Structures are given as structure tokens and as C-alpha cells.
Amino acid sequence: MSARSYAQIKGANDRLRVAIVGVNGRGQAHMSAFSKLPNVAVTHFVDVDSQILAKRAAEFAAKGHPAPRTGHDYRRLLDGKAVDIVTVATPDHWHAKVAIDAMDAGHHVYCEKPIGIAPAEGEALIAVQKRTGRKLQVGNQQRSSAETQQLVALVKAGALGDVYEAQTWYANNRVSIGRGHEMAPPAHLDWDLWQGPRPRGPYRSNLVPYNWHWFWKYGTGETCNNAMHELDVARWAMGLEFPEKVVARGSRQFFRGDDWEMYDTLALDLAYPDGRTIRWDGNSCNGMLRYGRGRGVLLLGTKGSAVVDRNGYELFDLAGKSLREVKAPATSETTGTVGEGALDVYHAGNLVDVIRGRAPALASPIREGHISTTLCHLGNIAYRTNSVLTLDPATGKPSSTEAMKLWSVDYEPGWEVKA
Questions:
Q1: What is the chain's Cα-based Rg?
Q2: Which residue among 197, 339, 359, 385 is least packed, with the fewest CB closer than 10 Å?
Q3: Residue 179 has pLDDT above 60, yes or no
Q4: How many Å is the maximal CA-CA distance in the chain?
Q5: CB burial of residue 131 (10 Å; 0-12, 13-18, 19+)
Q6: Helix-strand-coil percent breakdown of the chain, rounded to 5?
Q7: 342-400 residue pLDDT tens
Q8: Looking at 59-127, which runs of residues are DSSP E strands?
């Protein structure tokens, strides 16, 4: 690239300004990662909870950063040209809406997984990204792991032979969310704006800030919350996209009397046309480790196997003997709710480098993010319809009319997510 053409790229030589939308959970990892990048400034915080907003802004300034501008409505931020990048770390039902509005307003986007609350939102994101030409990085940060990239290259070069199966898992020891009740929302929370695209309903005492994950109206369960990372790595290494069949066996084994609407234990099987399979075992309330890891991917091949997580990988021969272990020089959190670590910095840096023309491609572009997120949605759909899903491998869409009812969701009038 010539010096002249490089200089014409927006942001190539200028400081990039970043706005974080949603600052209570993963948003903390966003603000930390982007503030570590050279010639990048985190300038705006947006959250519908005024207490959390003030707290995070004070913490950020106390670390020596310039105090960010704050606001509770992201739409006011998008009206101007005050920022170059918008990061989305809101509850799941907001991801697609904020990302689409930001791209339509001319901003680049870093969007947490899952990219939407239903597969149709991923399709809309693909269309809007193509139409606007904005950069959209999906937040499955292990795509930016040098160690995982190295392992994927080894697999594709035949180091494990033909990889015929991937076993993936997530283990945690989450506690009960109890029995809540309807009540007036706290004064510091804009409940109407928190609901955003979803049809309006009453506030519940045990919903915000985190337990919305376990309610179908706002969340997507442990599968979209965490399986997306490992399913993404597995299909990336195996060169797979959509399967032909999806089976999900789930149950609520713990704290059955509380308000948690979903499974806490789920076995998800993805079957591909050539006989290869990917399996995810989700245990939200049983933290038993596998291979010393709370989450990870085991790749089984005809010449050997490999175990990989966010912090490195290990190769084994067919007898199970360890051949090589590679550890990341800087670690990343694996099962915490913030999930902060070195990979966040690498992944944010990749987006910034692509915007500036210093890297050829995003580590996790929207189509890849859509496929991996849809695998998780399909697991939820199979569970909710209590059926085995047969899919069109080209689109991931199930043949069942009942299953297709969950391909999209209803919206509050005026808040529709559309391309």
C-alpha cells in the first residue's frame, strides 16, 4: 500500500475515539482493552443505569485516563461524529440493534457475542455491514489468539490427520437466582430503555443486572453466552460451517424452584454431512474441570489429538502421550462474567489495525460470527421445540415450521431490528 493511499484511510494517522455501550460486565473488558492501544482513546460511556455509569466513569478516571463523557441513550451519541468506534456490551437483546444503528450512522463496531437474540438478527447484521461498508468485529476474542491460530494452521496442515470429532465444554458453579417479584424499577435504571427492542413488560426484582441471561425474553442461555467461543474454535479448526442435524438434550438439575427459565445442563450435538461431529457439554452449576480446564476444545484426529483453550494448547499422539504444550505468554480469564484478558487487547487491536489499513482482515468478521452464533441458537431451538432439527447446510435454517418460529423474535413497535 502506497503512503498516499494509506493516508487516505479514515483514522490511519488520527487518534481513534471509542464509545462503550453497556459498561457493567464485558464493557469493563472493552474499556480496558481499547485504552491499552496506541493512538486510541476511550472517550464515551453509555449505560441505562446511572449508578453503574457514574461508578465506571469514576473508576476509569482514577486509573489515570481522561474522564469519559457519559450518557444513558446511545442514540444521542450516534447523532454526531464524536466517535469512530462503538463497542456493544449490552444485554443480548440489544446487540444487533445498537450495532446496526451504529453502522448506519457511519461508525465501526465491536459487537459482543451473541450477535443477536435470534438468527434473523445475524442475517440483518450481515446485510447492513455489506451495505454500509463499516468494519464489524464480533467479540469471540479467541480468534485473535496466536496460539489458537498456530494450532488451526497445524490442523489444516494435517498434524492430527483427519479431524473427525470435536468435544467442547463449559463448566461453572452458578448459584440460584431465587424467586423474584414484580416491582417498580429502581430510580437509577431507565427500565423502558433497558427493554429497548423487546415488547414492554414489568420489572422483576431478580432480573437486572445479570440474571436476564436465564429468561427467554432477554437472554439466550449458557449456549449463546459461552458455547459460542468453543463451537467457533472447533468448526474453524475443522473447516466446517452449518451442520445437517442438531440434537440438544437439556434439563434444569439445580435450584429447580427458582425463576431460571432455561436449562442449566445441556448436551448439544452437531452432525455434519461427511460424518464429522461437534459436541458441546454445558454445565452451568457444576464446575468439574476437564483436562484441568473450565472450558476448552478437544480435537480428535486419525493421527493424534489436541486440547486448546484461551491460554494455549497441547498436542497428543494416538496413545494419549503429550507431544508438545504451548502456553500463551499472557493469560485471559475463562469462566468469569467479565472475561478480561490479553485476548481482548489483541482482538480490539485487530479491529483498529484493519480500520487503519495495517491488517488485511478482521479476525472475526460478521459472517463467521453469524455462523457460530447460529449454531448456538439452533441448540436452543432444538431444546425449546424438543425435536431433532434437520437443516439446510447452506443457510442453517431448520426444515421444521415450528422451529422456524424461533428464527426471529417480536419487537416493541418502533424498535424493530431490520436491514
A1: 21
A2: 359
A3: yes
A4: 65
A5: exposed
A6: 35, 20, 45
A7: 999 999 999 999 999 999 999 999 999 999 999 999 999 999 999 999 999 999 999 99
A8: 69-71, 85-88, 108-111
Residue 399 is classified by DSSP as S
Contacts 24+ apart (CB under 8 A), 204-208: 204/180, 204/259, 205/180, 205/181, 206/177, 206/178, 206/179, 206/180, 206/259, 207/180, 208/49
Q: How far is CA 416 from CA 171, 369, 412, in A?
A: 35, 21, 7
The number of CA neighbours under 13 Å toward the Cβ of 127 is 10
Q: If we measure between CA atoms, which residue out of 64, 81, 62 comes closest to residue 19? A: 81
Question: Which residue, 130, 85, 89, is CA-closest to 111?
Answer: 89
- Strands 108-111 and 136-138 turn out to be parallel
This prediction's pTM: 0.95
Cell 496460539 -> residue: 147
Q: Which phi and psi (to 5°) does residue 408 adopt? A: -140, 175
- Side chain identity at residue 239, one-letter code: G
Coil, strand or helix at 334 = coil
Q: How confident is the model at residue 341 (pLDDT cuts 50, 70, 90)?
A: confident
- In single-letter form, the type of residue at position 68 comes to P
At residue 266, does pLDDT exceed 60?
Answer: yes
Strands of 305-309's sheet in order across = 322-327, 312-316, 305-309, 295-301, 163-171, 277-283, 265-271, 245-251, 389-390
Classify the C-alpha dihedral 17-22-26-32 as positive or negative: positive
Q: Please identify which residue in the block is written with the cell numbers 425449546.
A: 384
Separation CA 160–CA 307 (nearest Å):
12
